[in-house]
Amino acid sequence: MARAFNRMLSQLREYRTSTAAELITERNRAASIVNTLDEGLLLLDEHRRILLANPVMCELLGLPPEQVVGQPAPVLRLHNDLLQTMLSPLDAPNRAAAVAEAPLLHISQRGEEAFYRLAVQDLVSFNEATEKTEFVGQILTLRNVSDFKRLDQVKSNFLATVSHELKTPLSSMNINLRLLLDERLPAEERLRITGDVRQETQRLQRMVTELLDVSRLDAGAGVELDLRPTSLADVVGYATATVQAQLTDKQLRLDVRLPEDLPAVRADVEKTTWVLINLLANATRYSPPGASLIVRAAPAGSLVQVSVQDHGPGIAAANHERIFQRFAQIPDKTGYRGGSGLGLSISREFITSQGGRLWVESELGMGSTFLFTLPAVS
């Protein structure tokens, strides 16, 4: 942008011999470009008088253009907090460092929070008489970096969550392994502790698998599938056996409802089982002790639909899609879904790649039902 303005300044000398119509056309073209920018832009002359402010900048300043353009910025800043913040780094002894180290500007617009980064560029012009470059003004831009800020926050939350999720089973395993060293423990107690260690090991293994799967997907490797006619009864059997220890610990009842004439599906057994294990593990985590989980499957046209129903806290409608985003953490007041925030995202990738669909039906306080479809074998 600064280079473009410098080119415009040098071209002005050429325009001295141009017609008025040509000058007006060029001015209007430049103004049109500036006014359509999605960044806030402020153009100051060498005395810091405001020569131009595009619509985005005027909106951020909360002032109409006629109260901005033509005004001395040092005077206007006395009555405008945002302009005061923008100009403050320009007064520092090391302006470049002050601008680079300036914190993001937190601005509320139409009830929404947004973050902007300030950038400053000097404008210079070559004086043919003195054969020197002269300072003729500055461009100040505000770039909306809210999306980057949110991604950074998501990354921080994810790292904190993964650290916690890894620490919990490791701490539990450490305690249980120390208990096993006590030779006075009865055999049945040793067996129980061994089962606990195995359960925590499986939990860690699932988390590492999730991280590796996401890494492969981000690298553009896609989902490798081994599609073949598959019995959903077998898939359900594998998955329920894997989570049986967790169900027993919480005294949860598992109700499996599969019709005898359920058609086979064309699916990847390993990945479909992984999805069902993830859904059952989530349902177990959020169900109160003594509750029941229901696994259903039924034909749905050319597809077969599978569902896992729990009696947990439920999920607000506004978060039905958000929970399938990577690293999503839903506030507890709207139905908290903990974990690494990867399981549901990966599950949807696995099901979608097999020609199916994965979604949730839920209301706060009414539990949740996660459903997915797979193509039936004709």
Structure commentary:
It is built from eleven helices and twelve strands. It has 378 residues and is of the alpha+beta class. The protein has two domains: 2-144, PAS domain (Beta-Lactamase, 2-Layer Sandwich); 151-375, Histidine kinase-like ATPase, C-terminal domain (Heat Shock Protein 90, 2-Layer Sandwich), CATH 3.30.565. A five-stranded antiparallel sheet has the order 2-1-5-4-3, sandwiched between helices. Strands 7-9-10-12-11 form a five-stranded mixed sheet. A two-stranded antiparallel sheet has the order 6-8. Helix 7 runs antiparallel to helix 8 and helix 9 packs parallel to helix 10. The longest helix is centred in the middle third of the chain and has 35 residues, at 146-180. The radius of gyration is 31 Å and the shape is elongated. Mean pLDDT is 82; it is low at 333-337. One of its GO terms (molecular function) is phosphorelay sensor kinase activity.
